[in-house]
Design goal:
Elements: H1 2-21, H2 29-35, H3 40-49, E1 54-62, E2 73-74, E3 77-78, E4 96-103, E5 110-117, H4 124-147, H5 149-153, H6 158-161
Parallel strand pairs: 1-4
Antiparallel strand pairs: 2-3, 4-5
Helix pairs in contact: 2-3
């Protein structure tokens, strides 16, 4: 358990270091890539040369509801705002996509993932196993945070940017 906790904490800290090193937390990339006539073409060329095989898209934290612009849950699955409907005639941009958000509508927050993949690269059974491993890793991190809240808090990027009382 201790070795696993140490490895998990180090992995989270590595992600934290990468996130901390990104200028403006990565927010300027889209502006430069798609709206800046000077830098857009160079960034487009770099993107074409270094096309990732995986898209991990974190959408944020949400609650279900029945009002406008709120996600609708049907049968325990989100049925509208977070459904990813891809025309089968279009080529996939990535071999594997994970669109992820946190569902806060229940007693405890839970991670929801919508997987899209290229059938030529992955089978449904492989994606199911990947989802199970991801669920297990998330559960292990949650248990670690419950056992050692201070160590878990040290992995948060916000812990470095917020002062006492949550103020920047």
């Amino acid at each position: 358990r201790a070795a696993g906790d140490a490895a998990a904490l180090e992995a989270l800290r590595a992600v934290k270091r990468v996130m901390r090193a990104m200028p403006d937390h990565g927010l300027g990339y889209g502006v430069l890539r798609y709206l800046d006539d000077e830098h857009g073409p160079a960034l487009g060329a770099l993107e074409a040369q270094n096309r990732p095989a995986l898209l991990f898209n974190y959408l944020g934290r949400f609650q279900t509801g029945d009002g406008e612009w709120t996600p609708l849950a049907v049968g325990g699955r989100f049925a509208d705002a977070f459904a990813v409907d891809i025309d089968p005639a279009l080529p996939l941009q990535y071999g594997l996509e994970a669109n992820v958000f946190v569902d806060e509508s229940g007693a405890a927050p839970r991670v929801a993932v919508n997987w899209t993949w290229a059938d030529a690269l992955f089978g449904a059974d492989a994606i199911e196993r990947l989802g199970q491993r991801m669920d297990g890793a998330i559960a292990a991190l949650a248990h670690l945070a419950e056992r050692d809240p201070l160590a878990a808090a040290d992995t948060l990027v916000a812990a470095e940017t917020l002062g006492a009382g949550g103020a920047p």
